[in-house]
Structure to design on (982 residues):
């Protein structure tokens, strides 16, 4: 048995092209076959579209990409392959006939895996001379991103083939769910299919539209399912008693008509598998710690969704806008009493700001200083309207001194000193303090240039903002000059 | 009708406390009632646990937190409330009796909302004198994070009550799914319940364990459900033909036994609602653009999950480790030919590095420079083992010059010059170039201190690494000194 270097792919639609992208990104060559006339053009286009997403996903070094060639028949493809991944249309007769051809042409130790969403491998392997190397290797769209692959043996599949296929898929960056017994739809599609059919029932009963039914998932349960399935979700809903408590609490509702699908007949055996299974999943970690972990992940996921203005992230953005609108921010006025550095911004160190040493990463010091600058902008009247008018400050130079470390959750307090201000430039100094002890954690001296952001060139600061900055600078001229101002590194 | 300032909450378990946290975080006062002896202690603890997650979620300014007081009866609670949210145990008789009490004590225009997961509001309002103000307001755990609330009217509910309740929940940062017709389980729980019952069938048939069944969701469909429901998922699976094509393609599988739940009886009317609903959801955006958006969000979600070492993120981390292990990184050797600055790191500008102006944010320049430093570390032999031995370099000072902007997707190329090296300090200079034009985008001069990371104090650089750095510094002494070295801001 030789190392897997060349993958044969039969069928080059969304799934076949997705597989090819995943394999080629990891340096394997692909030989593809598809009888459609425009198959090659479409497949190359799909792989090209998938590539940047795979690049963005990983921080690892990139392998030299594998090559893509096209074969003129399934047999020619199979003869060249060290591993065959079938991704033909979802028709059992078609797939069974295709497996017969691939099996006849492939070296006898080459694994032949079907991407079928639900057919029994026993049927697919039924016409093969070497049925023992036929399995299901069921991926999920987009195949180049989602890690799950379900492997399923038919009656004649050799167990060592599942071992080899599992090891191969893991090298391809996947998570292998190895079934020991075949069933139509395998596991994931049975779950998806139940929800899909129930969604159709709800639609059919005129309870809600497709958009409303999708919303019911996207803004609630869907966020949890990205990190835990039904069993762990309900284990957590049971509080410290977990699934055992959940069952006792919800026992009556099991008989309620809350879906068109009935419960399986309850038995002690089922209850044992359910409770013991959840307890094994949870391991030594008590439910309240799982809940805290879930919250941490949900928070960061929702923040990512906000960046993309989608689903729960859009709701979050709207919520923040309401909070900003309702908040009474300090605003500079000509009679503002300025007796020391400005104190306009506080925050806490976020978990995602912390590096492998458990300390706030250097780039996030700068991120937080940027927030302090935004707070100064709000104070002097640079708001959305100012920016929408095409004016903005760009930082052209920053000097940072890192004095002490900060850990996740610690409170930060910022003070800001305006050093000088001229027609187009703002020279300022921020100090980051520990919010409780007041210790100085870091400082930054920065030069900002006022620009016309459409033309990307320096232009004079607008009058009201300049007036505010001049007035603050005049008061701040009386303050001691921070020792870090004007520093030369290593001097 | 007065402004809502005080919320009455009946039942202070996971759901009631979650509601209280959401309301108090937004400045509303809560009056709670729960007959359990330790209710107040537990509720205060739950709110305290929820608080940091809410703080981390938002970038908006925080309101002054609302207060929490306890009433000694449901009537006393209801009499003080401008809005009542019931969250008692899920028993219909108990809830119906409780609604009767609350209704008798509350001002007649006060909305009374039940957190029930599935009971019919017509039943809950049946004993009330003012049934028109009774609705379902069904939230999802954790209530202080997940935005969905389903509002459902009973037969006697007044429509304007749903308007008012919807506006209130939106002010509480929620997404309102307003049903116009009651049904057991409403929408979301019917979908969840179908999947849960199917999961129990799979468990009962000994196909997979609870952990495996959960894995089937977490590593695949669950990631998608955080951003799109079943309908949009399958609309995208239909390619540019959307749901219309998807149905024609999967028509045969609709009859397949892929779950224990049957399809609703197919009709032209159902098909029309399905296809037109999906097309309305997709709007003017073609399927391939939706797919690109889905990919962008999936990538960023998976990167967040990697930070938390959970689900698909754990698979991604393992995949990256494999890539690092397989990659042939340049390593310094005593006979390395060093004729110019080191060229050890390239990357592309990630979408999440870009600010509202469409340009790479200042803090991410520093982040990328940090990656270039890590590449230098790998080159000179500072690896996981070195760090595990308790040695590391900390940056103590950075000076950055921003020369040009960079946009999402642009390639970056870094060059690195070692300026000086002494027993404990490394003085270096990175230049960030555009990967194609070679234009200089930014520079940084940095001073790094070698530390014992357990004791957090400076210690001498270990011999092999020092040897490599000295050899590089000796060669780099012949290079021209970059003009940005030793700069004073504003000088």
């Amino acid at each position: 048995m030789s190392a897997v270097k060349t993958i044969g792919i039969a069928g080059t639609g969304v799934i076949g092209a997705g597989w090819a992208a995943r394999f080629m990104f990891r340096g394997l060559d692909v030989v593809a076959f598809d009888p459609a006339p425009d198959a090659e053009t479409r497949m190359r286009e799909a792989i090209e579209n998938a590539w940047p997403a795979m690049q963005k996903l990983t921080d690892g070094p990139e392998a030299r990409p594998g090559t893509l060639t096209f074969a003129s028949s399934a047999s020619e493809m199979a003869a060249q392959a060290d591993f065959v991944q079938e991704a033909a249309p979802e028709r059992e007769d078609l797939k069974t006939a295709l497996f017969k051809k691939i099996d006849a042409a492939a070296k006898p130790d080459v694994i032949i895996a079907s991407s079928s969403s639900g057919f029994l491998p026993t049927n697919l392997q039924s016409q093969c001379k070497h049925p023992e190397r036929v399995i299901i290797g069921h991926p999920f769209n987009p195949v180049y991103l989602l890690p799950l692959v379900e492997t399923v043996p038919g009656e004649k599949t050799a167990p060592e083939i599942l071992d080899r296929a599992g090891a191969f898929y893991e090298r391809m960056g996947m998570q292998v769910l190895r079934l020991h017994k075949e069933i139509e739809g395998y596991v994931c599609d049975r779950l998806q299919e139940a929800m899909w059919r129930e969604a159709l029932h709800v639609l059919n009963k005129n309870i809600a539209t497709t958009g409303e039914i999708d919303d019911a998932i996207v803004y609630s349960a869907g966020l949890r399912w990205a990190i835990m399935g039904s069993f762990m979700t309900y284990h957590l809903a049971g509080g410290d008693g977990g699934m055992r408590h959940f069952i006792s609490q919800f026992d009556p509702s099991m008989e309620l008509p809350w879906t068109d699908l009935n419960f399986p007949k309850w038995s002690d055996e089922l209850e044992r598998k359910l409770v013991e299974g959840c307890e094994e999943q949870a391991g030594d970690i008590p439910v309240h710690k799982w809940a805290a972990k879930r919250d941490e992940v949900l928070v960061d996921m929702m923040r990512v969704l906000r960046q993309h203005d989608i689903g729960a992230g859009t709701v979050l953005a709207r919520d923040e806008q309401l909070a900003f609108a309702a908040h009474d921010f300090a605003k500079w006025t000509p009679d503002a009493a300025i007796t020391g550095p400005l104190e306009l911004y506080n925050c806490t160190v976020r978990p995602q700001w912390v590096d492998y040493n458990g300390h706030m990463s250097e780039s996030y010091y700068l991120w937080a200083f940027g927030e302090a600058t935004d707070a100064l902008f709000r104070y002097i009247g640079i708001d959305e309207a100012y920016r929408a008018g095409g004016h903005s400050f760009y930082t052209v130079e920053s000097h940072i001194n890192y004095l002490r470390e900060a850990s996740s959750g610690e409170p930060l307090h910022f003070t800001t000193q305006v050093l000088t201000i001229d027609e187009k430039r703002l020279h300022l100094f921020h100090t980051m303090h520990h919010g409780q002890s007041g210790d100085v954690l870091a400082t930054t001296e920065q030069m900002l240039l006022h620009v016309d952001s459409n033309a990307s060139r320096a232009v004079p600061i607008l009058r009201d903002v300049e007036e505010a900055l001049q007035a603050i600078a005049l008061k701040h001229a009386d303050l001691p000059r921070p020792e870090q101002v004007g520093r030369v590194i290593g001097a």
